[in-house]
Every structure is written in C-alpha cells, then in structure tokens.
Amino acid sequence: MIAVTIDNIQVEVEEGTTILQAARKIGGKIVPPAMCYYSKLKGTGGKCRSCLVKIARTSNTDPRPAAKLVASCSTPVQDGMVVQNITSPEVIETRKAIVEFLLINHPLDCPVCDQAGECDLQDFTYEHGLDTTRYEEDRREFNQIDIGEKIKLHMTRCILCYRCVYTADQITDKRVHAVLFRGDASEIGTYIKNVVDNDFSGNVIDVCPVGALTDRTFRFKSRVWFLNTVNAHRDCDKCSGKVTAWMFGNEIYRITGRKDQFGEVEEFICNECRFEKKDKSDWIIEGPRKIERKSVISQNHYEIKAKQSVIKPLEGKVEPLT
Ligand code: SF4
User: Fold this and answer.
1) Does ligand 1 have an atom closer than 6 angstroms to the CB of 164?
2) Which atom of ligand 1 is nearest to the CA of 160?
3) How far is the CA of 188 from the centre of ligand 1 (A)?
4) CATH number of 107-123+136-215: 1.20.120.80, 3.40.30.10, 3.30.70.20, 3.90.10.10?
5) What is the Å distance from ligand 1's center to 161 Cα?
6) pLDDT tier at 102 (50, 70, 90 boundaries)?
7) What is the CA(286)–ligand 1 centre distance, in A?
8) Would the CA dihedral through 12, 14, 19, 20 be positive or negative?
9) Which residue minimizes the CA distance to atom 3 of ligand 1?
10) What is the pLDDT of residues 48-94, one digit of tens each?
11) Ligand 1 site, residue 188, Cβ cutoff 6 A
C-alpha cells in the first residue's frame, strides 16, 4: 500500500490506483468531477479534462511539483504524493475554463432536454462554471441521424466523451457507431446509416453524461424530478434484471440501470428489461432508491422536508416551521 494526500487528507491505496480513484476512496467534495471517465469501462478517461488536479509533490523520492495540471483519472498515485484539488485556486480557475470550453458547442436547451436534472454537464456547470460566455461564433449544427426507434441521438449536445463507443465495444456483440471525422467536425455516427440495435445497446443512454443519447420510449413524458424512483428486479436470462424503475403513481415511465454514488451504472441491463417491461407486474419492487440530497431529483422526495414545512393555503406559500 502507498500513501497519498489529497486536499490535506491522507489515504492509503494500492499501487497503480489513479488519483481520481484515491479521491473516491476518501469521498465527499474533494472527488474531482468526471465527464468522460467511467470506472466500469476500460480505456475511458483523459479526454474531457474536467478532473484536472495539481500535484504539489510528486513522491517521497521526487518532492518537486508537477510542471502542469494532470488528469486525475489517468495519473497513478505515487508514495508520498501530495495532490491539490479544491484547495488549489489554479485548479478551480482551470475548471471554469473547462466548463466554458465544453459549453462552446453544447446548446443551452436544458428546459426541453430529457437529461435535465440528471445531467453531469448541468451539475458541472452549476458547481464550477461561469455565468457568462465569451463565445460569439455560431454553434455546430448537424443533420439528424436516426439510430433506431429506441434511442434518440442529439448530436449538438454531444461532448465527445467516447463513453458510448466504449460501452458498445465492450458489452455488445457488434459496435456499429463511433466518433467519425476529426477536430471540430467530429461527430457520433454510424457512417453507413446503421441502426444501433442489439440486446445491450440501451446502456449507451445511461453512460452518456449529457442529453445526446436519450430513451425514445420516455422522451417528453415527464421531468425526472416528478417521478418516484424505486429499485426493482425480475428474472432475466440476459442480464441481472436489477434496475431502477421511474414511476408516476402505479405507472412505470422508464427503466434505467442502477447508478452508484458517482453516477455510474452498477450493472449494465438488457434492452428487454429497459424498453419492453413497463408494467408494474413485470417487476418485484424492492423499495425507494437512495438519491443524493443535492440532486434536483430529490426535490419533494424527502420525508424530513415534508415534516419541516407547512403549507399555508391562504397565502399559498411554503414556509419552514420555526
Ligand atoms: S453521445 Fe454521449 S456518451 Fe457518446 S460521446 Fe457523445 S456525450 Fe459521450
């Protein structure tokens, strides 16, 4: 085991652990944001620069700082390394620039985007972004590409994180989509108009950090924060059958994989569970899914909140109990 200090907190980790994984072991606010890294997929990371951190001391044998900020998702820790994340003004300032960069071409259509409320870029912008932009050029535009009846591609929202490509590569039989072309002409596409369609293709929706890939069976049905989320399971011969069901009353509006505290799916699920099983009787409901309090999805789902507030019908407003 080797020791690394991140934002003044020391943790022991195994050799080969990345700075990001070491920070996740500590948890809390010092965990760098990640838009392209996905621990469940091999080869991800190193593309979006959201997780840049400062190495103030390289190791016990080399006490010099690193010459520039490094991607924490792909930099392994060394014994005695000292890392600064939220304690470094340089990192905080750089993160603002990264948000600005990611938003250069990303449309600000959160009010009509199905990902709103569970969008990593929305959270990243809220926590680290500027409230203005210096960008004056036109944003990129694309011809619509139809990738099948279950998944909707909005290329303008894509931040080219490659997660969906790795997902298709690693958990499906045959990948038919990729990042095509280079530089600012890059886009997700199927080249010859292919349909992204196989038993596990729906997982690209769950890994997409923005609203570039959304569930066509759920689009525009509801905002995510109006739904109750419950963990459910069924016997499935293709996947574990362990899912999160998003419900309105007794109706299941959509099915997704269960996500962990870092927003990554715990187990990939098959398309039959995701798209075909929308009847409550298809599932054994286990109970409410725990949602981070800071998430907008948690709005109105906390008993404690209900107890702490009273509605005064005459004034029509909600006031906290004193
Ligand atoms: S479509 Fe989504 S998952 Fe795929 S590269 Fe773009 S942002 Fe990433």
Assistant:
1) yes
2) 5
3) 7
4) 3.30.70.20
5) 5
6) very high
7) 31
8) negative
9) 208
10) 999 999 999 999 999 999 999 999 999 999 999 999 999 999 999 99
11) yes
Give me the residue spans of the domains in the chain. 2-101, 107-123+136-215, 224-303
Give the residue-averaged pLDDT of 195-202: 87
Considering the domain 2-101 in this protein, what is its CATH number?
Answer: 3.10.20.740
- State in Å: Cα 108 to ligand 1 middle: 17
Cβ(213) to ligand 1 under 6 A?
yes
Out of 165-179, 261-275, 284-298, least confident range: 284-298
